[in-house]
Design a protein that fits this description.
Elements: H1 2-32, H2 36-39, H3 54-62, H4 65-97, H5 100-111, H6 115-128, H7 134-158, H8 162-170, H9 175-186, H10 188-204, H11 207-212, H12 220-225, H13 235-255, H14 257-271
Length: 272
Amino acid sequence: MKRLLGRIGFGLSVLVLISPAIMVFLWMLSLSMKTELDNTAFPPVFIPNPVTWDNYAEVFARNDFLLYAWNSVVVSFSATGIALLLGVPAGYGIAKMRAIRLAGLILIARITPGLSYLIPLFLLFQWLGLTGTLWPIIITHLVITLPIVVWVMISFFEGLPAELEEAALVDGATIWQAFRHVAMPLARPGITVACILSFIFSWNNFIFAVVLAGRETRTLPVAVNNMLTFEQISWGPLSAAALLVTAPVLILTLLAQKQIVAGLTAGGVKGA
């Protein structure tokens, strides 16, 4: 009986915590499927009657949505791939050297707002003549993705049994062979978590794309900004654009939630 009451109490607590997010999402869905007259009605109309898809059609009419989607895919996958390529070995080196100050520097880079890097990076790319291409966006997204990968991997590599790598070194393996054949397979849950989190943060980033991108290199979050006008806020198209941009990462999070929770839990336990 106590166990049942405990589960019910836990379920109710979780429902209270996530209900604001669920209500916001459902309200956005409602706005995207109603006419502008219903969206501005008082009292508010929650259930669309009739349901309209004109808001989604307007999003595609006012944006080159497929091009923006392709740009987002290229930028997010590139920034995530480069971050993994550089961040996993960096996390391994920091963990094995126990470079606490360097780890703190990575943490500072992670929590520093991306806007702080924007002006110097914009001037640099303008001097190099790269503004308007995808390269500035990919490079600036490394400011977001690389610290995530390094910080997640440090905790995993710190928790690996040192005896396994020492045995590989005694058998004649180099440090890179021990890293590749011993440490990396054991840290696969951490790599999965770092990959997913990096992709999500890169996909959702707005400020770098709106400043550095040209007309042909904008990403999907810019499509949401394009729905704003000087005359009025059209809540229907704005909500439709936001849902279309959010849908890929929302689906990815739902599909990979077990891996994310398992990976973060394993890293936390090992690093303790």
